[in-house]
Amino acid sequence: MLKRIPVQSLTLGMYLHEFCGSWMEHPFWRAQFLLKDPKDLDRIRATSIHEVWIDTDKGLDVPAGTPATTREQADAQIDTDFGQLDELPAFTAAPPAPARALAPTSMEAELQAAASICQASKQAMVDMFREARMGKAADAATARAIVEQISDSMTRNPSALISLARLKTADDYTYMHSVAVSGLMVALARQIGLDEEQTQIAGMAGLLHDLGKAFIPLSVLNKPGKLTDEEFALMRKHPARGWALLRRKGDLHEAVLDAVLHHHEKIDGSGYPDKLAGEQISLIAKMAAICDVYDAITSNRPYKNGWDPSESLRRMAEWTRDHFDAKLFQAFVKSIGIYPVGSLVRLASGRIGVVTQQSGKSLLMPCVKVFFSTKSDLRIPPEVIDLSAPGCSEKIVAREDPAKWHFPDLNELWSG
């Protein structure tokens, strides 16, 4: 049985199933192992992670009376919370319209445009990181032009670019992560009703938030195994390094600089570099914390495959009490969907499909491209079903783990 317990209750002999936090917050390259080394226990307790999942079938259980949450209890609470998102009031009464009026496009058409934007933006980020290694701050005009293209793409179709930017190789992760977080920041800014100037500031913060990683050796940045304590400490210096570089030029908004410095702060004060808590953290930095973690945990890395988008949101929901601003996280989920594009789901009919876009009517009823029947255990001709369409009797009954099914063309099915 899986149980979520406080880190303080963790003891030698327990089987660690999962950390309640992203893998950026701890130095372990794997999450599942029998806890036998006292040094590993000390290292876990030294991180900012407060809770872990243990598997009592593979190791010791907690003593009777110890606070613990079962997997079923945790899932039931998340289902309840997510199921209420459609009825929750908007963050603001009426989000302002984008400054540039652009005609909406289909997902298919915008994916093609977004591919070109992603490629050009990635190259621009490669250049920015190269210049940063030479001590040159990013050119604000270039960054603004990139954010404008990202913003325009999301005005035409809000899902295409942020979904496509999630598909990145280990080699281009650092650069494409910046592009993806910028897009997610724009989406969240619009969801909470920021005006166009503030939305552009949010997009800039997302684009530049990790520039300090230019000073981290690639051997550490892309290490496929466990980081040493020294390497982990070095990684945690990137916010301050990026902030110090960018502030020298003096042409960036203060909110952008603040987000660069504080995107790893947490609501409970256990983040870094300044251990800010609650309202001490700026709005843009709180937004960046959410967008940064989501893209990181849904992306493949040298040492770990990314999680399914909908599964990632559920895991983040478990961390919200300690990590994220709860209302902002709710707005983030509404901006990308409970089942974001690319999520693998099972329908009531037993068919399996991948989410291709949001319907705009209900967060629980996206458009799904079905392509596999669990009843016949065979592939079927792909068919797109709008679950929100009048008379549609289908509904999502479960999330599916892509690692279990090994569909080789999963990304192509939704992205083309």
From TrEMBL:
The lineage of its organism: Bacteria, Pseudomonadati, Pseudomonadota, Betaproteobacteria, Burkholderiales. The keyword Transferase applies. It comes from the Bacteria. Residues 152-348 form the HD-GYP domain. PROSITE patterns: HD_GYP. One of its GO terms (molecular function) is transferase activity. InterPro entries: DUF3391, HD/PDEase_dom, HD_GYP_dom, HDIG_dom. SMART domains: HDc. Keywords: Transferase. This is Putative nucleotidyltransferase with HDIG domain. The keyword Cell wall biogenesis/degradation does not apply.
